[in-house]
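Chapter review: from sequence to fold.
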Amino acid sequence: MSRAAVLLAFAAVIAAAPVAASESRDAGERVLSLVNEARASARRCGWKRFDAAPPLARSAALDRTAQAHAADMAARGRMEHAGADGSTPGERATRAGYSWSRIGENVAAGQPTPELAVASWIDSPRHCANLMDPDYTQMGVGYAADPGGTAGFYWAQVFGTPAR
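The token string follows.
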């Protein structure tokens, strides 16, 4: 991707409707609480059964990774795992300063509350499997509002296991 294309993508992210830092922190704390509540009980994610998993810790670097991706999706009006620059969740986490051995990502669009976002991930077998994976120890959350867009809200949830 050319430097000009990267700068245009960055400008689009900045143009997305901003979410107040306190709102983002509160939403992230609520998502973490709901996820840890879900991980506390065994469950099925599609055909796969998961035992209860230990709670996740919040990671500031993964929060930055998730928030940047949520803003990127809102700016583009498109929910996907690839960033505007073609980046993967692992590349974005590394750019945010997270040294990882495992990384995963859930994204969602259209859910106006943390409760609805987490419920949609639990209802999806692949997203639920990420959420219940006992090998993940940390999580970051981001969301961005796009009031003029079709979806309205974009969520990114990044799971990680730090490198040893």
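Two observations follow directly from the output. The radius of gyration is 15 Å. The mean pLDDT is 85.
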